[in-house]
Amino acid sequence: MRTDENMSMNQHNEFASALYAEEAPSKARFLGLCYIPAKRPFLHSFLGNKLVLIACLLLLVIACCAVFAPWVAPVDPLEQTLKARLRPPVWNKDGTRPYYLGTDSLGRDVLSNNIYGLRVSMAVGFLSVCLSLLIGVSLGLLAGHARGVWETIIMRAVDVQLSLPIIMLALCFMVIFGQGLYKMIIVLAITGWAEYARTVRSMVLSIREKEYLESAYALGLGPITIMVKYLLINSITPILILSAVQVPRMIMLEASLSFLGLGVPVTTPSLGLAIARGYDVLFSGSWWVSIFPGVALMILVSCINIFADWLRDALEPRSREQV
């Protein structure tokens, strides 16, 4: 009798343990960090994607090299050593230190130019996107909230700008304003604000129909409070995704303008300028002058694009299903 009771108790305990195991959420670990994927889907999506992790790691390395360029670069990027002109990379039999990636036609170190060029590219890309975001979001909020004449003027300006090729528009502005790093940032911001304005305005028009916004109007809240607290906050997701996509586009546009000689001054290290300088000697055997800056630019843009694609899929899962 007691044996039957013990067996039934053991079966009950086994059933309770199995039930608890089914109900207990699964856990995941990453470098000693323990978390529950069901409660941290955004973090799990990031840590579970090896390609995104590698891209972010490379971006972190590039950013550190760019920030600490004076300490990382082996020599001054503008220092000219004519005796060492067109030296091959250090693994070549004619290569010498500290010119690890060789030198250009004026004896400038290719590696140092790449490090400082990445610094300029990242600064121009991020600052121009921040400035264009500020302009475009402000105008988009105004167009979607005020409607009427303001909406007509702003959206017609958006239509005109989006109808023109961005490279041609940037070339025209650079011819007008002239060369310069800060001028380049302003020009790129002017060419990129229209997409923010159109995106934010469409989001505002959809949010205006929500009940909580009608309640805000009924409470007598001011237009600035409504635009910032209700309209802007609910438009953050598409703004972040668009910003992540715009950064590599601005970096490529800066490199293109510098390659054409209308970007930053020749005294400023730039990947576009380095590629242009190496193009003259590319077919004479000095391939490293142009190839290494191109590879650095490709790695930077690819890493940001990979992160932007992941961010879009993580914040808007429907976009991945539609694709």
Task: Describe the protein's architecture and organization.
The structure is a single chain. The chain has 323 residues and is mainly alpha-helical. The protein has a single domain, classed as MetI-like (MetI-like fold). It is 70% helix and 2% strand. The protein is built from 14 helices and two strands, in the order H-E-E-H-H-H-H-H-H-H-H-H-H-H-H-H. Strands 1-2 form a two-stranded antiparallel ribbon. Helix 5 packs antiparallel against helix 6, helix 6 crosses helix 8 and helix 11 packs parallel to helix 12. The relative contact order is 0.11.
Structural class: mainly alpha
What's the overall geometry?
A: elongated
Number of helices: 14
Q: Count the domains.
A: 1
Compute the CA-based radius of gyration.
Answer: 27 Å
How far do the termini sit from each other? 65 Å
Q: In CATH, what is the homologous superfamily?
A: MetI-like
Main β-sheet description:
2 strands, antiparallel
Instruction: Let me know the average pLDDT.
Output: 81
Number of beta-strand segments:
2
Please identify the top-level CATH class: Mainly Alpha
Order of helix and strand elements from N to C terminus: HEEHHHHHHHHHHHHH
- Low confidence ranges: 18-24, 319-323
Widest beta sheet: strand line-up: 1-2
Secondary structure: helix percent: over 70%
What's the layout of helices and strands?
Layout: H1 2-23, E1 28-30, E2 33-35, H2 41-47, H3 50-67, H4 69-72, H5 110-146, H6 148-162, H7 166-177, H8 181-207, H9 211-218, H10 223-232, H11 236-259, H12 271-279, H13 288-315, H14 317-322
Antiparallel strand pairs: 1-2
Helix pairs in contact: 3-5, 3-13, 5-6, 5-8, 5-10, 5-11, 5-13, 6-8, 7-8, 8-11, 11-12, 11-13, 12-13
